[in-house]
Automatic annotation (TrEMBL):
This is Cadherin domain-containing protein. It is a single-pass type I membrane protein. It comes from Astatotilapia calliptera. It holds the Pfam family Cadherin. The keyword Transmembrane helix applies. The chain crosses the membrane at residues 680-703.
Length: 795
């Protein structure tokens, strides 16, 4: 028999279609049910990319899709009687699922019955007792045959073997099948024939038809000639499915015209087919009351057709039968069942609204309103349910997803029926959110200051950058690159390099503070996502000065290696000006702060030198015991760590008169008073400017300290003190600053520093030629606050 094929196409929504096919049961594996690709209007070449598949909630895979042809094929043997027992209509409900984009389509395959089962009686022999006084026309209910097939393939008629006493009356019960009654056509005579053997044959409607037979043994019994009679031939009653055992269903009533034992009636069930009503109901044989015995379940059996028999107690009992239809009233005793037929997880966090996450089917075994269900998502998860067809739903994205905020959602779905009271059930679906590259790397700061000592070795790591990316895996893998920039027309890439993986900034050359004090460049951090995202940071590199330059003696005195000569009169008073040593240092800060020291022959204390001015003067008047020539060595040292120095040698010659004094290199003041007046004016000017500037800075520092800890007001008032050597100091209750300056130098420094000297870190303010102020921030000192170094350079 060729498979029957029927195709029906329904459109239920823009993204979902419904297809219906029909096929006979027991067809061979591989039989084509229909062409899904053609019905879905999809090219065969697209099937693998679209991943066409069918999903269902059945335990067996009855149907499958051939991705090469798009045909829907039979995968396993389909037995309608096994799949849909005792059911007129049998169908497989599937869903055809496509990806890219995700769509779902309802597929219903109707399973058509074939005549593969023969009618069968539950017993091989049936014994029937009939009184010989039975009147013609009496009827005797015969057992029914059971056929697993339905429709035209079920039992359609019965045939009785040829005899002279009985005929067969076949009655059609509509959807309840056919039944046969044995009708007495000719009066019985036990004396002629006490036993009559008949053969009852059940015939189904298949082509060709199948048959089953039953041997009937009729025992002809004499006497009792009246049969009981029921008040009704058909009883109908309704019972709730939650009825407890012992609940009265109905009370039967039958009468017999005979008297005595021949009229006493006993009631009983007649077992027909494979249903034994005595397992479900209890019949009181004497009263005819039928009560509930076992559990009733509308979902398993919505109605019972029971045949009852009334039998008298005559010597030859006679009986009558009636039909009892018991309808089970459905109660809302089954909560809805939620089944996830397909789950597409994880879901990308940039999934569009309406993206299908899961396919869900809701079922309820109850009937009527008790079986009508509604389904919804509980809670604030960004998902919603979209109805596809009746009780089929799609769980779709209904809001923005952000993996960085929530990576896993436990979506609770609630299904509720319309019973009274309604019943509901929950299903939790775990949805994982996968990462997409939607976060650019971030630096902790937009501008980073890096401090590098000059003369640091080439190849050293001066700083390590670190950018954070909130994404995962490859989307969070950050690489670092230098952006194109130049440093004094030199590409910054020739000065620095950066490790793209670790963010280490590596110096490619040694830095010289005297040539380059600061520069900046930009670094870009880029993740490895598609497309990649990036962010920039500005890096300021500040070169810290090192003491790598020795002091240089300025003209008219040369450096170490030659001897200079100065003459002084024998009559010189104490404090007489002999010479002034001038020196400069290419470094800055403390490294450029010079001090002068004098080395004389042992026991000679005739001369002294200003440690900050470099002026050589006499300590006392000359005596006859003093030498005529005094070799002096002047040591000029800076304040770096370690200190560097330079020396110059001067021979001071004592002459008798001032006329012999030669000054080839400079003008030496004759009168110390006039020299002191000039210095006094200069001192007043420099001190005035310095005091004003210093007081402004002190005020600024006081305001800042007051804002931070509120303790500045506890300190005493500042004090400024001048010293005989021309220096002055600024002091407070807890700090003291010294100022050194000189007025007769090609390069002189005004230095303000705490006493004793602080470490290198602090804040440096330089005053250069032209009254230009330069403020340089050095490494922060976390332990000391308020150190100020002031250098004033004048020409």
């Amino acid at each position: 028999m060729a498979p029957y094929f029927e195709y029906v196409h329904f459109v239920t929504s823009l993204s979902e279609q419904r297809f219906s096919y029909s096929i006979s049961e027991e067809v061979n594996k591989g039989t084509v049910v229909g062409n899904l690709a053609k019905d879905l209007n999809i090219n065969v070449q697209e099937l693998e990319n679209r991943d066409l598949r069918v999903v269902s909630s059945y335990s067996k895979t009855y149907l499958n899709v051939n991705l090469r042809s798009g045909n829907l094929l039979v995968e396993e043997r389909i037995d309608r009687e096994e799949l849909c027992p005792l059911t007129i209509k049998c169908s497989l409900k599937l869903q055809a699922v496509l990806s890219n984009p995700m769509t779902a389509h309802r597929v219903e395959v109707n399973i058509l019955d074939v005549n593969d089962n023969s009618p069968a009686f539950l017993e091989n022999r049936y014994y029937l007792n009939i009184s010989e006084s039975s009147l013609t026309g009496e009827r005797y209910l015969l057992p029914v045959a059971v056929d697993g097939d339905i429709g035209s393939n079920s039992v359609k008629t019965y045939k009785l073997s040829q005899n002279e006493h009985f005929s067969l009356d076949v009655q059609s019960g509509g959807e309840h099948g056919v039944s046969a009654e044995l009708v007495l056509q000719k009066a019985l005579d036990r004396e002629k024939q006490s036993v009559i053997n008949l053969i009852l044959t059940a015939v189904d409607g298949g082509k060709p038809p199948r048959t089953g037979s039953l041997q009937i043994h009729v025992n002809v019994i004499d006497v009792n000639d009246n049969i009981p009679a029921f008040s009704k031939l058909l009883y109908k009653v309704r019972v709730k499915e939650n009825a407890t055992p012992g609940t009265l269903v109905i009370k039967l009533n039958a009468t017999d015209l005979d008297e005595g034992m021949n009229s006493k009636i006993l009631y009983s069930f007649i077992k027909r087919g494979n249903i034994d009503p005595s397992n479900i109901f209890y019949l009181n044989s004497e009263t005819g009351e039928i009560t509930v015995k076992g559990g009733l379940d509308y979902e398993e059996t919505p109605a019972y057709e029971v045949r009852v028999q009334a039998t008298d107690q005559g010597p030859v009992p006679r009986s009558a039968h009636a039909k009892l239809l018991i309808e089970i009233v459905d109660m809302n005793d089954n909560p809805p069942q939620i089944s996830v037929t397909s789950l597409m997880t994880p879901v990308k966090e940039d999934a569009e609204l309406g993206t299908i996450v899961a396919l869900i089917t809701v079922s309820d075994k109850d009937g009527g309103k008790n079986g009508v269900t509604s389904c919804k998502v509980v809670g604030s998860a960004p998902f919603n349910l979209k109805s596809n067809y009746k009780n089929d739903y799609s769980l779709v994205v209904d809001g923005p997803l952000d993996r960085e905020t929530t990576s896993v959602y436990n979506v609770t779905i609630t299904a509720t029926d319309e019973g009274a009271p309604p019943l509901s059930s929950n299903k939790v679906i775990t949805v994982h959110v996968s990462d997409v590259n939607d976060n650019a790397p971030k630096f902790m700061e937009t501008v980073i200051n890096v401090y590098v000592k000059e003369n640091s070795p080439t190849g050293s790591v001066i700083y390590t950058l670190n950018a954070f990316d909130a994404d995962l895996d490859v989307n969070a893998k950050v690489t670092y690159t230098l952006l194109d920039s130049s440093l004094k027309s030199i590409p910054v890439s020739s000065v620095l390099n950066i490790n793209s993986e670790t963010g280490d900034i590596i110096s490619l050359q040694s830095f010289n503070y005297e040539e380059l004090k600061t520069f900046h460049f930009k670094v870009q951090a880029t993740d490895s996502g598609v497309p990649p995202l990036s962010s920039n940071v500005t890096v300021n590199v500040l070169i810290l000065d090192e003491n790598d330059n020795s002091p240089t003696i300025l003209a008219p005195y040369s450096e170490h290696g030659s001897v200079n000569s100065e003459n002084i009169p024998y009559s010189a008073e104490a404090g007489y000006f002999v010479a002034k040593i001038r020196a400069v240092d290419a470094d800055s800060g403390y490294n450029a702060l010079l001090s002068y020291h004098l080395s004389e022959p042992k026991g000679n204390n005739l001369f002294r030198i200003g440690t900050s001015t470099g002026e050589i003067r006499t300590r006392r008047r000359m005596s006859d015991n003093d030498l005529k020539t005094h070799p002096l060595v002047v040591l000029v040292s800076d304040n770096g760590e370690p200190s560097l120095s330079a020396t110059v040698s001067i021979d001071v010659v004592v002459v008798e008169s001032t006329a012999e004094i030669q000054t080839p290199f400079r003008h030496v003041p004759v009168k110390e008073d006039s020299f002191s007046d000039l210095n006094l004016y200069l001192l007043i000017a420099i001190v005035s400017v310095s005091v004003i500037f210093l007081l402004s800075l002190i005020t600024l520092i006081a305001v800042r300290c007051h804002r931070t800890d509120g303790t500045f007001s506890r300190y005493s008032a500042p004090m400024i003190t001048t010293h005989p050597d021309g220096s002055w100091s600024y002091s407070k209750a807890t700090q003291q600053y010294d100022v050194c300056f000189s007025s007769d130098t090609l390069k002189s420094d005004v230095v303000v520093f705490p006493a004793p000297f602080p470490p290198v870190d602090g804040e440096l303010i330089s005053i250069n030629e032209g009254d230009t102020f330069t403020r340089t921030q050095t490494l922060p000192n976390k332990e000391k606050v308020g150190h100020l170094y002031l250098f004033c350079k004048t020409s």
